[in-house]
Amino acid sequence: MLITATTHARWETSLFSGVPSCPPLGAPGLTSPRAAYQAALWGRARLVDVRPHGARDSVVHPDLAPREESELDGCAGPVIVVGESEQQAAPVAGRLAGRGVGPVTVLAGGFARWAQEQLPTARA
Q: Which of 4, 22, 55, 88 is the most exposed place for a label (fewest CB within 10 A)?
């Protein structure tokens, strides 16, 4: 009996093609909107909205107690930074971590993804 082996690289490639790469060393990690919502809902993390006030048509719902960056001095608990995008939030997360706030992560996909997943918002 002759047995032949074939490689199945095609399914392996497609299986792992959607996996995001790890953030660079020292860069803040990402938190999914649903995980951020659950953490804020149960008081396990604070949300910090860093979008400019003039650019906010809607905000994270006030019942989740979103904060401003300036309100976090001396904060020892986990913080999730909400920006319009990950790129907008990452520098703020780095500054907060440098001030000893933390651990600090960034909301994956920014506020747009929060709203897209129909998580609680309110008019600004």
A: 4
Listed residue (37, 122, 112) closest to 80, CA to CA: 37
Instruction: Output the pTM of the full model.
Output: 0.77
Which of 3.40.250.10, 3.40.710.10, 3.40.50.720, 3.30.70.1520 would CATH assign to domain 33-123? 3.40.250.10
How many residues are listed for the chain in this entry? 124
Q: Count Cβ atoms within 10 A of the Cβ of residue 36 and give its class: 0-12 exposed, 13-18 middle, 19 or more buried.
A: buried
